[in-house]
Design goal:
Elements: H1 4-27, H2 32-53, H3 67-99, H4 112-134, H5 142-155, H6 170-186, H7 191-208, H8 226-232, H9 249-254, H10 283-292
Helix pairs in contact: 1-2, 1-7, 2-7, 3-6, 4-6, 4-7, 5-10
């Protein structure tokens, strides 16, 4: 194949760029905000190019009929509520430290790389638990069903690409960010570590949903690659595991990791006669879906 090599280096190249820019930003005391936006824009352009030259499935390409829904999810569901989650997390930690205690400088005694790894694993734990519980959909529990209804919006698309990364209910986005950032801020990690955790999250979150050909490799055990995250969106329940958003560590530890050679067949929610999931273009219905469905909507 003409672009076979690209499928092998697609993820490593993005990791290298992000890591290099992150290192240079910290070393040269550059603006964290500008560096973060630069990485976001590079990731966007890079993935869109890859999706044209090495698409995993032609039918997964962005469609003009749903592009406005894609944009609404990006602006309102993702960008706005991610920022809100970070603000709430920061406000909560400032309040706790002001009225109860301040964090120590313990992390400064550890090697920087070790601290970075620990911060990522800690930041991933609560989102992993929340994500895993959200997939239960226990018909005997209103809370369990509510969590699935909220999270199901992310699984509505029957295709995966850069745009579909942003298909997420605002409450889901808010909780993901709040659960990730609160422990990291609470434990007193440095601004540099938080910056690196943030750019790592953005880069992996988008590349893991990309419509690109990749190959099963050792990277699948280190980060959440397209190879393993596509399976999470599978309509086959035995494949729909891998609840880690950025790293598969907790999946490997708790036995929810799944991988195999080849690629996922079909993605999306399992449609049953009694289920009335919102349509692709019904953004407002997707927003109110969690509170307007009956208890037995998803059994």
């Amino acid at each position: 194949m003409k672009y076979k090599t690209a499928s092998y280096v697609a993820v490593p190249v993005l990791l290298t760029f992000t890591g290099t820019l992150g290192y240079l930003t910290i070393k040269n005391d550059w603006s964290f905000e500008i560096a973060s936006y630069t990485i976001f824009l590079f990731t966007l352009i890079y993935i869109l190019i890859l999706e044209r030259i090495i698409p995993l499935k032609q039918k997964w390409k962005p469609h003009k009929l749903t592009i406005w829904t894609d944009i609404k999810h990006f602006i309102f569901s993702t960008a706005l509520f991610d920022a809100l989650g970070k603000t709430l997390a920061l406000s909560l930690i400032v309040y706790i430290q002001k009225h109860f205690f301040t964090s120590s400088n313990y992390w400064d005694t550890l090697p920087f790389v070790v601290t970075y790894i620990i911060a990522n694993l800690i930041g991933e734990f609560l989102p992993y638990v929340y994500h895993r519980v959200s997939h239960k959909g226990n018909s005997n529990s209103y809370i369990s069903l509510l969590l699935w209804k909220i999270h199901s919006i992310h699984h509505l698309p029957t295709s995966l690409n850069w745009f579909k990364t942003n298909w997420i209910h605002p409450i889901n986005m808010l909780l993901n960010t709040l659960l990730k950032m609160t422990p990291i801020l609470f434990l007193g990690f440095s601004e540099e570590i938080i910056f690196l955790v943030g750019i790592t999250h953005v880069m992996i979150a988008y590349i893991s949903h990309a419509n690109i050909q990749t190959n099963k490799s050792f990277l699948d055990y280190l980060i959440v690659t397209p190879q393993i995250h596509h399976f999470h969106h599978s309509k086959k329940m035995q494949e729909a595991k891998n609840f880690g958003n950025i790293f598969p560590f907790w999946d490997l530890l708790f036995g929810t990791y799944y991988n195999r050679k080849g690629s996922v067949d079909k993605v999306g929610v399992i449609i049953n006669p009694g289920v009335n999931y919102p349509k692709d273009k019904e953004y407002l219905k997707q927003l109110v879906f969690p509170i307007t469905t009956t208890k037995d909507c998803c059994t």
